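Progress report, Aim 2. The chain analyzed during this reporting quarter is listed below.
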Amino acid sequence: MFGRLLRNGLVAAVAAVAVFPVTAVAATAAPAPHHVTHHHAARHVVGQVTTRHHRRLNIRSGPGTGYRVVGSRPVGRTLPIACKTYGSDVFGNHRWYKLPHHEGYVSAHYVHNRGAVRWC
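Predicted structure tokens for the chain:
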């Protein structure tokens, strides 16, 4: 009888501990705003296109001049920069900036960034 009482008490205690903290935390925790998510909360550094002779900056599908051109931006245009990586050499500069939302890559040689850019 003592064993059965102990077992029933233990089961009830475990059940209470398992249920109570979840409901208490769920009731007191403030929900995060629906427009803020962890993968979109990262802030992007901004860079400005600085090509010569008013030429447009090519946006490529990968970090190198051998990748296909998927778009372009005019001189003076600002770009959001997600991160930097190494790629093919452009006038002694091997750094390439990855644009957010899978837009592509641009050579860092032609972009003046306004802040520290993290590595991809």
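Residues 13-41 have pLDDT under 50 and may be disordered. The radius of gyration is 27 Å. These observations will guide the mutagenesis work planned for the next reporting period.
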